[in-house]
Specification:
Elements (H helix, E strand, L loop, with lengths): L5 H16 L7 H16 L6 H15 L7 H16 L22 H9 L11 H5 L1 H15 L13 H14 L9 H13 L6 H15 L7 H17 L17 H10 L3 H12 L6 H4 L2 H23 L7 H5 L8 H6 L8 H15 L7 H14 L6 H16 L17 H12 L13 H4 L2 H19 L9
């Protein structure tokens, strides 16, 4: 039992746990004072009966020391922890093992609650290991080394492996991004590019881990969510450089490991394999039979395959998103043998349905490119097709599509228009309910009889109608084009 007042200890434990939960609060004077006070009490009596309390307090607050504490706070805490380790680690004891030897980062959140139970022999004790093992000098020294390892990863030995705090922050940031809910302060483009730089500068031992991170963020980068070509350029360059390191790869494996096929899970594996502590955690999981052998995951032949596949995807999508998008294949899909439009198929793909998202970009760009050489009967179909598909495109039309469709829409909007319409009925709407039956009947009335009252052909071909549709589409696409700043045509 310690000589600390239990009520005071409960207050201290709560304040320490608050620091653990909010450790990313940089240079917080209140937090600095709490760490400094705890370290001073430990340094004053590293072999005293309360050493376990102050040591565990520093373990709880250690994540804050990896962020940006005030000047001198880290050295003060590290000196106190080293003093405890030096004084207690060789103390005699009759225990075969100690709690610190099986303590991992997931257990940190319970330490503050355990402190009062540890200090008060009359309190309920819910731990598997007895109090005397927790209070044992060698256990206290072990936890001091755990705290030092949190603050300075790899600075001590004989402690359970754990993921460095910096790696944990990276993992949390990237998994949030890949789940589609990035943290509010995340600079998405910089975060992805920083992973490319991490791969380019990685030490050989940790290169596979960084490659697996890039593999994971590549899926996001090519999804259409990234609107800056330089981000994909950074990833391509990093993977190209990486492949040169695996040029002489060879292995004797019959098969390699199965990697995660979801972005968040894939990035977690990559981050884990990018540091000594993370690799230690992985090896521990392997010994427990939960993951495949590390050598089958980081095999250079396997990494070559991963790099080549990532590079293929990056290059192809970079060209689709930012280069010249080839839509010649659409002729076979949307034109009949006689050269007329496959009007039914086109109209079906103008409905706001999830399955039409995959057709939208190519169909819209193809329609915009064909517009200039189309006849009067085709042009309203192509105009409305380009307009509608830009709304269906998900997550939004890529740069190559935006530029092509905008060029056509600007030309249409700039064309002369009569001051008044020459038809008596109103213009069609761009809503699917009208397009579904109205557009096929207008384009091929001999094939598609009218379904109810229909617009006149003059209403569909009216220059004022075309100009209004083009202007609406331009308003939408101008917003997207503004997101492609400082990009040069490929």
């Amino acid at each position: 039992m310690t000589d600390i007042d239990i009520t005071l200890l409960e207050e201290l434990a709560d304040s320490w746990d608050e620091i653990r939960e909010n450790y990313q609060d940089s240079s917080n004077d209140q937090y600095d004072k709490a760490v400094g006070d705890c370290a001073a009490r430990l340094a004053a009596d590293p072999v005293g009966g309360s050493a376990s309390v102050w040591t565990l307090g520093l373990v709880v607050m250690a994540p804050y020391l990896t962020w940006l504490p005030g000047e001198g706070v880290v050295p003060h805490a590290m000196e106190a922890l080293k003093a405890v380790d030096t004084a207690l680690r060789e103390q005699p004891c009759a225990h075969e093992s100690h709690p610190y030897a099986s303590h991992d980062s997931g257990d940190d959140m319970y330490l503050a609650e355990q402190l009062t139970q540890l200090a008060d022999d009359t309190a309920e004790w819910n731990e598997d290991r007895p109090r005397d093992e927790w209070r044992c000098p060698r256990n206290v020294a072990g936890f001091a080394r755990i705290a030092m390892d949190i603050v300075e990863p790899g600075s001590v030995t004989d402690v359970p492996p754990r993921l460095p705090m910096e790696a944990r922050d990276t993992m949390e940031t990237l998994t949030a991004l890949l789940h589609g809910y990035p943290k509010p302060w995340t600079d998405i483009y910089e975060e992805i590019s920083s992973q490319a730089r991490g791969l380019s500068g990685a030490d050989p031992e940790y290169r596979p881990g960084h490659l697996l991170i890039v593999r994971a963020v590549t899926w996001y980068a090519v999804s259409g969510m990234v609107r800056t070509k330089s981000v994909l350029d950074d990833l391509v360059d990093a993977v190209e450089r990486t492949l040169t390191h695996f040029a002489d790869a060879a292995c004797g494996h019959d098969r390699h490991a199965k990697l995660p096929d979801s972005g968040p899970a894939a990035v977690e594996l990559g981050v884990m394999l990018s540091s000594p502590g993370g690799r230690g955690v992985y090896e521990l999981s392997h010994r427990e039979g939960r993951v495949p052998p590390l050598e089958k995951v980081v095999c250079p032949v396997f990494m070559t395959e991963i790099a080549e596949e990532s590079l293929r995807v990056l290059r192809e999508r970079r060209e689709e998103l930012f280069g010249h998008r080839d839509t010649s294949h659409a002729d076979a899909e949307y034109l009949r043998a006689d050269g007329r439009l496959e009007i039914e198929k086109i109209v079906e793909r103008l409905d706001y349905k999830g399955w039409n998202e995959k057709y939208a970009d190519d169909l819209g760009l193809w329609a915009a490119r064909r517009y200039g050489r189309a006849d009067e009967r085709e042009r309203p179909v192509l105009l409305l097709t380009a307009h509608r598909t830009m709304k269906i495109s998900y997550p939004s039309p890529p740069r190559s599509v935006v530029r092509g469709v905008l060029a056509t829409m600007r030309a249409i909007a700039a064309a002369p228009r009569p001051p008044k319409c020459r038809h008596e009925d109103g213009h069609p709407t761009a809503e699917y309910a009208e397009l579904r039956s109205g557009l096929p009947h207008f384009y091929a009335p001999e094939e598609f009889p009218p379904a109810g009252e229909q617009r006149s052909a003059e209403a569909w071909t009216c220059p004022r109608f075309a100009g209004a549709v083009a202007e609406e589409c331009m308003r939408d696409l101008d917003e997207y084009e503004g997101e492609y700043e400082d990009e040069v045509d490929s």
